[in-house]
């Protein structure tokens, strides 16, 4: 077995990626969820996105949510922005870690923003300059990195080429989104290898969906390849509204539960995280797909039957 | 990465383990499901169990189901039996591959059959003799091999000791059940290593549940350890009624989908398997938990949006 890392850095994306893909909930509820997550020991949280309220009403109150949220010491908060206007709002709100998205698949990118991948990369180059000029760091998230629901397989060399481009344009980090859960251990291996061969040092984060049951197998494969940064969403909150057939994000509890059992630290208190997932269910008024939320961790025993 | 196998042998357990843990369905429906599965290309099917109809009404018509089912060429069918009476019925029905179960956890074994693990192993020794005397092969399934919901961790050395005993008593094969989904990559590695260290040559099969999302990560780990035989249940049918908090079996489609994408053959036609899972949903009148059934394989694309 490959040497496994001692620590894995989880970025909790429930407050942004999760809530953005659920029915809107009140500002109070968003603040409560953010605060609950901030006290789990997680080191990174994707807090909000600054998008047009007409396009994504779930994030219309991003400024207020962020203003009211308790900023926990030792937690890195990030925001996602689609364009210059969003970047200006994020910077004005005080964010210094900011994410932008492009889809590796041209068809998927056009479907989302009516531009080619190349055109979006031109926009992103300008955004990176804007962010750097304001002292913020820029992460580029490459969606449909493991496959596109319209085009099918996405050539890992195409994704690696996008990484070349954004690194050249100054991106501080890259993330790879398995937007519709087309990732498998093989695809993870091929993508990570292709990217690493051409960009050995850029910080890489992987974002898996569990649409076809492979999320933790993919995570395990990535660990064996030396990847130590992953997105996950409390309770498995959210999905992708633009992606037909997509189911939710990898549940943070499921990732943490497996990692801790493997002796890999995350800094997260799993019980507190499960409480945050229970809170998310309460706030949304629906059941979330996380198995560890449902069944509890493997260490939570059933009282022995009386003889 | 460890060398992966070219072929993995899946035993489809939906007709027995799956249906045994769902609401009873008519005999006709069971025959239809068995026949649909027999034509998927799967090489092994756990067809029925011969248990007391009072204890498990779902299998009360096992004789008739088996008699009416089409026996496909090239498919090995097996039956599960709890005791001598069941073994005699299975032999009379013509089965030559027969499974018996014992739980590695004493508490769990007592809860199920009101006997200690040791007492059950004594019974199994006699059952093996009976089966061998009739020319049949005997597989011992060790339940709670990756953890017990009452006792917690189960020492892999205890499980390996059970294997020592049953191999001495003549068992032709052993299987390890993750009865309540407590298995993780670490536990799989520890168990397989402990068993292989003491019994390098006994054929081993693993049976995972997806209760905490780890089923495919466990399967991947087992592949890397050279294991090539797995149970899975069409659609994720069934669970364990005796196990609090247990969710369904690993869905056969999810296993096959990942394996095929990794270039590992199973002999199974994935489309035919998904049709069988759709049939299972229709026959049971409920949604099953399989992601690949829900979303389709990663190769099933969405029509491109019109420009």
UniProtKB/TrEMBL annotation, chains A, B:
Keyword terms: Lyase, Metal-binding
Superkingdom of the source species: Bacteria
Alphabetical list of InterPro entries matching this protein: Aldolase_TIM, HMGL, PYR_CT
GO molecular function, one term: hydroxymethylglutaryl-CoA lyase activity
Entry keyword Mitochondrion: no
UniProt key word Transmembrane helix: no
Gene3D superfamilies in UniProt: Aldolase class I
A biological process term (GO) from this entry: ketone body biosynthetic process
Pfam families cross-referenced by the UniProt entry: HMGL-like
Pyruvate carboxyltransferase domain residues: 8-274
Family, per entry: Belongs to the HMG-CoA lyase family.
Name the UniProt record assigns to this protein: Hydroxymethylglutaryl-CoA lyase
């Amino acid at each position: 077995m490959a040497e496994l890392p001692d620590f894995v850095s989880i970025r909790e994306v429930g407050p942004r990626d999760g809530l953005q893909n659920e029915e809107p909930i009140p500002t109070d509820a968003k603040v409560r969820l953010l605060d609950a997550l901030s006290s789990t020991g997680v080191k990174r949280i994707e807090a909000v996105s600054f998008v047009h309220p007409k396009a994504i009403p779930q994030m219309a109150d991003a400024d207020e949510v962020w203003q009211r949220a308790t900023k926990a010491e030792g937690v890195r908060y990030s925001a996602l922005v689609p364009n210059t206007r969003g970047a200006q709002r994020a910077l004005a709100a005080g964010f210094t870690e900011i994410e932008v998205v492009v889809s590796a698949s041209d068809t998927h990118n056009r479907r989302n923003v009516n531009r080619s991948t190349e055109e979006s990369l031109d926009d992103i180059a300008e955004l990176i300059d804007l962010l750097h000029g304001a002292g913020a760091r820029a992460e580029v998230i490459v969606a449909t990195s493991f496959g596109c629901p319209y085009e099918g397989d996405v050539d890992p060399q195409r994704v690696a080429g996008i990484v070349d481009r954004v690194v050249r344009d100054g991106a501080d980090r890259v993330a790879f989104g398995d937007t519709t859960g087309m990732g498998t251990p093989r695809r993870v291996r091929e993508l990570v290898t292709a990217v690493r061969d051409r960009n050995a040092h850029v910080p890489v984060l992987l974002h898996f969906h569990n649409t076809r049951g492979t999320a933790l197998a993919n995570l395990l494969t990535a660990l064996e390849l030396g990847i130590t940064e992953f997105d996950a969403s409390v309770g498995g909150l959210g999905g992708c509204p633009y992606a037909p057939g997509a189911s939710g994000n990898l549940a943070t509890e499921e990732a943490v539960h497996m990692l801790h059992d493997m002796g890999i630290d995350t800094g997260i208190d799993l019980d507190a995280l499960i409480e945050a997932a229970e809170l998310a269910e309460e706030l949304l008024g629906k059941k979330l797909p996380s198995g560890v939320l449902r069944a509890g961790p493997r260490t939570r025993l059933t009282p022995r039957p009386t003889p």
